[in-house]
Design brief:
The chain is α/β, with parallel strands linked by helices. The chain contains eleven helices and 15 strands. Helices cover about 35% and strands about 20% of the residues. The N and C termini lie far apart (about 50 Å).
């Protein structure tokens, strides 16, 4: 890894803070935002919709966050919220809580100063595609130096659309600290426009775009010591899974099983709570809900097999705040 932010992300320790979904200056055909994130004024901490500042802190604690990655839209209202959240996170977790911001605009010196004073560590710029190869002598070169002068670590983060040597020139010149290349991806939010531009999915892949890992990008760019190519497989298999594992470890009950994918597995029964008391089930092996009882999945199987319960189900769910259920398996 080439940055502290990337190291933390690989460990699943980076909370993703989404601040607004409006981009006043950009309309990228490859923007991956879905309907619930694009052109909205909502803020999300991972999957949690933020209703108050305390939600941000609670979500960070839920996953034992090592740092925070901030992304979203670009209006001035987003800047005001971003600086407030930065101050909030630094006050709560201290200077070791690493923060980085991903942005598609240059912002100017005053914004760089405000972000730095609020506690931002690293800023990753995403110049518009039509500027690639022609950024020297423009505001995109100037902002790299301004950001560094204001105490930030300037870098690039771009989609792997094509190899562009100019990014390497900025690295060699010392203007940018590193360049992250994300494997080019299709999503529900950009699928139609991506196809209109002539892009297609890789065969057998859910999101990676055909040609995103072509030899030109890998040979001309990813071989540079200050370039990191982040694949979609790595994001799913490492970053996301490790984040779920961190959450699961923090919120699991004594009877929950944590899987290798970071999901929680438990049993669900619809018998009266008194039934469990009568059977002598230890209190730590079950909990009573409003209309059912949640219990160790292996104990549920034994109880059904022995005839102590008629039926139930084994539930597998994400440890996220919305508790999305992955699978339900009937036991009878």
């Amino acid at each position: 890894m080439i940055s502290k932010g990337c190291e933390q992300c690989a460990k699943g320790g980076k909370m993703v803070l989404f601040v607004y979904g409006y981009c006043d200056q950009r309309d990228c055909f490859y923007c991956p935002l879905g309907e619930n994130r694009k052109n909205v004024t909502d803020v999300y901490a991972n999957e949690r919709k933020v209703e108050s500042d305390s939600d941000v802190i609670e979500e960070a604690k839920r996953m034992s966050a090592l740092g925070t990655s901030i992304t979203g839209g670009e209006p001035q209202e987003a800047m005001a919220k971003t600086t407030r959240y930065l101050e909030l996170l630094k006050d709560e977790f201290g200077e070791d809580h690493h923060t980085h911001l991903y942005t598609g605009i240059t912002g100017g010196r005053e914004n760089m100063r405000r972000l730095s004073e609020a506690g931002l560590d690293e800023i990753r710029f995403h110049p518009p595609l039509e500027m690639w190869g022609d950024m020297h002598g423009t505001e995109w070169e100037e902002i790299l130096h301004i950001a560094r002068e204001e105490g930030l670590t300037p870098a690039f983060e771009i989609p792997g659309i094509r190899a562009e040597p100019e990014f390497l020139e900025f690295l060699d010149e010392g203007a940018a600290e590193f360049c992250n290349i994300n494997e080019f991806e299709m999503s529900d939010g950009n699928y139609r426009r991506m196809q209109e531009e002539g892009f297609e999915l890789q065969e057998g892949h859910m999101s990676a775009v055909e040609g995103s890992k072509d030899d030109a990008i890998l040979e001309e760019m990813a071989s540079h010591e200050k370039v990191y190519f982040c694949t979609s497989v790595f994001k799913d298999a490492a970053q996301h899974r490790n984040r779920l594992k961190r959450m699961a470890k923090n919120i699991r009950r004594e009877f929950d099983e944590v899987t290798d994918d970071g999901t929680l597995v438990y049993g669900k029964a619809f018998a009266e709570p008194e039934r469990f008391e009568a059977l002598g089930v230890p209190e730590e092996f079950y909990t009573v809900k409003s209309d059912h009882v949640e219990v160790a999945w292996w104990l549920l199987e034994e109880m059904v097999e022995d005839g102590d319960l008629d039926e139930g189900e084994i539930v597998e769910q994400y440890p996220t705040v919305d508790g999305t259920v992955v699978e339900r398996t009937p036991v009878a």
